[in-house]
Amino acid sequence: MSDALPPFQRFLDAQRDAVWRFLVRSVGAAEAEDCFQETFIAALRAYPRLRADSNLRAWVLTIAHRKALDAHRARARRAVPVADIDAADARAESNPAARDEALWDAVSELPARQRSAVTLRYIADLPHRDIAAAIGCSEEAARRSLSEGLAKLRKVVPA
Amino acid sequence: MTDNSPTDSSAIVEVLRLGPACAHDGAGASAAAQAARRLVDRVAAEGLADVSYATVESPFGSLFAATTKRGLVRLAFPEESTDSVLERIARRLSPRIVEAAAPLDPVRRELEDYFTGRRRTFDLSLDWSLIGPFGRRVLGVTSEIPYGGVLSYAEVAAEAGSPRGSRAAGNALGSNPIPIVIPCHRVLRSGGALGGYGGGLERKRWLLELEGAPTPRR
How far apart are CA A2 and CA A54, in angstroms? Predict the structure, then answer.
């Protein structure tokens, strides 16, 4: 039924894995659950007003992205000590799993816009146009944030 | 990963795409499924959805049942495709539809009692919004036929205010969105022949026999 929105349950079934994956990677497993609930509750409220031809994945990931930003802000207010870069470097050299972990630590410490660009591009698999819409900037600025973010990650975790 | 040049991000990108092991293997998918289940339970408990649906077991197999805040809005036999039933509800009523068992508990209980002969009338509230104006008249008359009783198509049409409309009444009965509960199986041909039934004539006969109504010989 291309002229109508799918029933919400079908939309949830189709998008839940991508949203979960995105949230686990952008806020961590501990906070993913709350963000997931808030994302889909917000989606449910807005759902009937959505245009039937909308890109549903980009739409829901944009909401998830906002919830992830909120979670990051809340965490910053709670002032949890940031990960020790030296420790991350040391771990990065020892084995691939530790290197991955160091990379995720580094992602969570990127400035908000760069983190959004990196997670929306590579985890959510959104095109630059949708990333720009999600962040609320130009496509050019989104590309710039993405490459700046990647450059920082390369410093922490050399390829 | 043979290219280790410092300007190449492909290794980083690869890790980002695959992510932490827990997020992309089976555990990640099932964690997402569980989170979705908790979400739907919460949506149902807080009344955030416009329509909830679930399957309800019956002697005919798994029935599809959907309810709104007003009441039972749709009951479908196992042959009907759940997807097309859902899509129709989404277009006619609201796309805010979730699969949740709890809102259908009263329907499940009353149907079970009915099928085991412990219940003769349903106390469920019904939502008539999938039924058009003429259908409401016809099915309204039908819902007054008592357990174990029958009317003819002509009698139902006459009661519904269109004495020559027994064919139209038959069509309205055939598209009854809440069979069994709105007992369209209690409407027969004038001579007593079974006539038609959306769920199949075998089921119509079974329901009439359950209720002890007179049924034509096979």
Answer: 11
Residues A31-43: pLDDT tens digits?
999 999 999 999 9
Among residues B184, B187, B207, B213, the one annotated as catalytic is: B184
**Distance to chain B for A8, nearest Cα, Å:** 5
CATH number of B51-115: 3.30.160
In this structure, the dihedral spanned by the alpha carbons of residues B30, B32, B33 and B39, taken in order and rounded to 10 degrees, is 150
Q: Max alpha carbon distance in chain A (Å)?
A: 55
Residue ending a domain, among A34, A51, A80, is A80
Rounded Cα distance, B122 and B144, in Å: 11
Using CA atoms, how far residue B132 sits from B135, B153, B179, in Å, is 5, 18, 15
pLDDT tens string A65-78: 999 999 888 887 77
Question: What sections of chain A are H helices per DSSP?
Answer: 8-27, 29-46, 56-78, 85-94, 96-108, 112-118, 128-135, 139-156
Note the ipTM here: 0.86
